[in-house]
Amino acid sequence: MNRSRWYAFRTVPGYQRMAAVDERLPESRRMESIIERNCRKDGFDIFMPSFYRELKHHRTNEIIEKRFPFLVGYAFVNLPRLNFEDLRGVDGVIGLLRGSIGYGPIEFPDGMIEDLYFAEHERRQAFLYEQHCRKENERHEQIQHLRGQLRKILPKGRKARVSMVDQAERAIDSLSPQIKERVQKIISELNALTADAEVENLRKAV
Hints:
The chain is built from five helices and seven strands, in the order βαββββαββααα. It is α+β, with helices and mostly antiparallel strands. The protein folds into two domains: 6-109, no CATH class; 162-205, no CATH class. Strand 3 (50-56) and strand 4 (63-69) form a beta hairpin. Residues 5-115 form the NusG-like N-terminal domain.
């Protein structure tokens, strides 16, 4: 079995941005860059250390997830067969990183690549945790907003131990058709937001 032999190469500007979505590819390649897709298509094992950020779309205000390279303009490729010329033929590859004049491409030890993999993994886990916290906060705010809407619609005098949803379900038959439809929609949204066992306590009376 050939051992790993990692080399760095320069990329054409713009080729490290995310490639267009291709539904035929597996989920693990959903956020790959153009240069990664081109290298993999031609059979090369590529590693582009990256980090993720959530950005707000400038027109729709939708939160979108983006991936960016740690090393702008560079990526690593495993070339156990030392097929440098084949790599140079990949669309988006400018050339391999070389040492001083007269030296060939610089080979990077496995330990250095492993350290970069680990750093990328740690950064990814921190991003996923922050993303989870943001979504949970948004869900909690939406729950409070929907309960506030129910509070304005339903009759006063709810008992402290009766949840807002339970009260709405009991009182719904006495409401007008239009208000009844609105309350049913709010209940449906609340049920969807509080479906997880982790947030079951949010279903209690506010």
